[in-house]
Amino acid sequence: MWKFILRRLLVMIPQLFLLSIIVFMMAKAMPGDALSGQEINPRANPAELDRIREELGLNDPWYQQYLRWASNAVQGDFGISYTHKTPVMDVIEDRLWNTVFLALVTLIFTYMLAIPLGILSGRYNDTWVDKTVTGYSYVGFGTPIFIFALIMLFIFGFALDWFPSGGSVDSKVDEGTFAYVVSKINHLILPALSTALIATTSTIQYLRNEIIDNKIKDFVRTARSKGVPESKVYSRHILRNSFLPIAAFLGYEITGLIGGAVIIETIFSYPGLGQLFLSSVSLRDFSVVTAIVMMTGFATLLGTLLSDIILSAVDPRIRIE
Amino acid sequence: MTLLKVDNLKVHFPIRGGFFRSVVDHVKAVDGVSFELQQGETYGLVGESGSGKSTTGKAVVKLNDVTSGQILFEGRDLAALSRKEIKPFRKDIQMIFQDPYSSLNPKKRVLDIIAEPLRNFERLSPAEEKKIVQDFLDKVGLSPESIHKYPHEFSGGQRQRIGIARSLTLKPKLIIADEPVSALDVSVQAQVLNFLQDLQAEFNLTYLFVGHDLGVIRHMCDRMGVMYRGRLVEEGRSDEIYENPQHIYTKRLIAAIPDLEPEVRGDKVKLRKKLTAEYESSYSKFFDENGRAYDLKPISSTHRVALL
Amino acid sequence: MEMKVETGKNIQVKDVSPSGMKIIWQEIKKDKLAMGSLIILVAILVFVYGASFFMDAKEIAKVDFLSIYLEPSSDYWLGTDYGGRDVFGQLIIGTRNSFTISLFITLFTAIIGLTLGLLSGYFGGATDNVIMRIIDFVIALPQMMFIIVVVTIVPVFNVYVFIMIMTLFLWTGKARLIRSKALSERELDYIHASKTLGTPHWKIILFQLLPNVSSLIIVNFILNLAGNIGLESSLTFLGFGLPESTPSLGTLISYARNPDVLENKWWIWVPASLMILVLMLSINFVGQALKRAADARQRRG
Ligand SMILES: Nc1ncnc2c1ncn2[C@@H]1O[C@H](COP(=O)(O)OP(=O)(O)O)[C@@H](O)[C@H]1O
Ligand SMILES: [Mg+2]
Description:
The complex is a heterotrimer.
Chain A: H1 2-29, H2 46-55, H3 62-74, H4 88-123, H5 128-141, H6 145-159, H7 178-215, H8 218-225, H9 230-248, H10 250-267, H11 273-283, H12 286-314, H13 317-320
Helix pairs in contact in A: 1-12, 4-5, 4-7, 4-10, 4-12, 5-7, 6-7, 6-10, 7-9, 7-10, 8-9, 9-12, 10-11, 10-12, 11-12
Chain B: E1 2-17, E2 22-38, E3 42-46, H1 53-60, E4 68-73, E5 76-77, H2 83-90, E6 93-96, H3 110-121, H4 126-139, H5 156-168, E7 174-178, H6 186-203, E8 206-211, H7 214-220, E9 223-228, E10 231-237, H8 238-243, H9 248-255, H10 262-281, H11 283-286, E11 296-298, E12 304-306
Parallel strand pairs in B: 3-8, 3-9, 6-7, 7-8
Antiparallel strand pairs in B: 1-2, 1-4, 4-5, 9-10, 10-12, 11-12
Chain C: H1 2-8, H2 21-30, H3 32-54, H4 57-61, H5 87-123, H6 125-139, H7 143-153, H8 159-170, H9 172-185, H10 189-196, H11 201-238, H12 249-254, H13 259-264, H14 266-300
The complex binds adenosine-5'-diphosphate and magnesium ion (MG).
Magnesium ion is lined by residues 53-54, 179 of chain B.
């Protein structure tokens, strides 16, 4: 097991290296100097232009530029945001926390929906309960999140006006107060619920199938034949075995949420990393874009790593491969 | 005339492990096996499952890489040839597989299945091809209309016949039959076996017959080799080995054949007990300190046994 | 005994092919939901491709400041947008563009995924190792962000470039799926048999292996097609998908990023949203029905 984790970590080193090279190359391909956030005015006179380029190290060979950028990035220095005129990390920090909060609440909702529905559907499979839940999963599976989120926003944000339709906190409340926390949560519910209602469907189906498969396994039959009551058969035997693979998907789930953040934050005008990413792309603030891509890339690699490790703990066969 | 001579064949599969997935050990599936097949004879390889019989057979048709040793077919060493160089020999050496379900492509019609080797080696018009395929179907006892059907429309025995027809189309000299009947119902086993013998006479075939059932091997084979953990432990004429086994493993194999007559059942149980005792007491007579069988030593002009 | 049985029913079961369109059709016919979905899907596509043939895309794209944000009427069946353009016309053209482009993306990813997946699974070893490492890496990227960045930095951007960029990031799942199937198929004796019969590798891959992964490919193709419609329209919605010259369903929905449109001008974004939902769900239902059938067949053996 430890060997697997170590090996898996070792695999990540070239992956990270490759990721940073790709992000670096994308940054080089962006107009301006995305690495430091300096804007180069193309109309400046050639001598002046050259002086700036020299100063920014743009005339160095690419690997020197890469090394400089990478070593800075490791220390959390991604240059200056040219729209905000502050270090990129300062721009990112608040937004990052907002995204983390949103992801956390979404995860909680996802599992709060998936676990009871999956269990119901699996335990009473082929009853009307199961058919309803399965029907919901099929529809959810085929529904793009941006459309569902728009509809949710339209109904609950505008038509019914139950929830705020944008932002992460009411600007009228003061930081640190109870009202502030309530307002923050209030802003999270709609985007988190919209994502969870769609994202949960694959987990529901997985849990359901897992339970149905476990129901007919020998250890369950043995327990039943020994007269263990049905509810105990579930809590002790079936569920324990069905939950492990679900837990393993946590990492992939996080990976998915990072990707989905761009859409959901845009729709709910939620000031997180995804929204910052989009607005920075639109404003051509490429040092911010580079930093976000690098960070989310790293986070996705970590999420995949996490899932691979849990999965291998659950199912040793995977380790062999 | 010697058709096939396998000399000190070794097939070792690497086991990867450790930190860098390096090769940490080997499964010695076949570990120094030598035998010869005379033109026209049937040679049996018998042994419990996992003893390396199939691996030996597959090495001859290059489905496995050979670690070391020679496979001389009509004097040419197949083990030393590349995949390309082996191609002409494909016509001469064919294989019948154990599982009639997985050995026929489920998405192919019988015509395409049986004609596959023909298409690789000969240029035939569709009509000629069809004619040949139907002839072979007839030979294996299936109706000519079968060519348009798919494998799932046949029983296990019929499928095995299709596989046999496929292996015959190129008029091979040597056929490796890897447990050709062990996946079939007992009721059709004898049928297929007899029919393999008829074909042998008709096409002048040489068989390398792999099996775990000593009864079947004895019925089919002129000579046989007994395999155990990748090594031959005894070799000789079938009747010799059956009537006068010398190696403890062979003895136990024969004693393990289930008996139908109730009166001898009690004797069998006693015999097995006795052999187990012998196995334990005289282990070192048959196996070295690593549990590896010794090299074969002749005890008569036809009979060889792995003894100290 | 067994021979008698087979001469009897020889002729009547002559052409029951275990693969191909026939089987698909039979599976769909059995499933009411799938059948209904297919009918709706075909009806929409016939109508959309037919109607767009008679429509003048340039005329529809023309801005008319005299008819901004009109509600649905007999002139404009679905009203107009902020540029006074006919929403119904845009819906038809958008549906056509979204579907066509997603189809091509699915097709190209299928070709790449199939080729690499089959090679990787069939040969195994070093080939497999290299391909799998690449797949592991690409799959672990935050795809949407990467697509958006690449879309912004490419020097020329048009529909073809967009399709290429999407293909670049989306082939991996398919390759992995097909590879694992090929990996298990190649251990079966029919592949071994082909080798001993002297069939060259490329022929074994194309004519022996490929037919046995075909149902997997078809199911995956259909499900991916639906997914790609969603992804393409999401990207266009965000403003990084199809270029403006090629309006898609996402373009219409993106107007709803303006809260006023979202709240008060439903006719602009609701029809396009419904269109995407109906397309995606009906394609999905057909795909799921086939998937269930394929899984069941597998289980039966
Ligand atoms: N491709 C392979 N890789 C690793 N081990 C193998 C492979 N093929 C066979 N073996 C191992 O070699 C041994 C002999 O197998 P096999 O020749 O199939 O035995 P038999 O046909 O006598 O039952 C077994 O222990 C088996 O697990
Ligand atoms: Mg075998």
